[in-house]
Amino acid sequence: MKTLFYMGSNKQNVSGVSWKVWKIQRKGRRVQTWWGAAHLVRRKVVPTHSLQTKSWTFRTEEAAREDEQRRIREKLNGGYERNPRNR
User: Is the pTM of this model over 0.85?
Assistant: First the structure.
């Protein structure tokens, strides 16, 4: 599972920032994503509440792999960072 985090500015918070989390997982021909708000607990990003989820099933594993990589690139280009433990 690839976990991506994002810290963006949010002037409504006391800290001035907000955290978001995306998880992307591929199993065979299926790609599933989870996303939602998060916060820091002892220097670890933890979801604030249960994450939203969506999944897609593709005709081939190659198509699923390409979609997974596209989604990861999209998030990285949007400012998300990979979970350091998964590097």
Answer: no
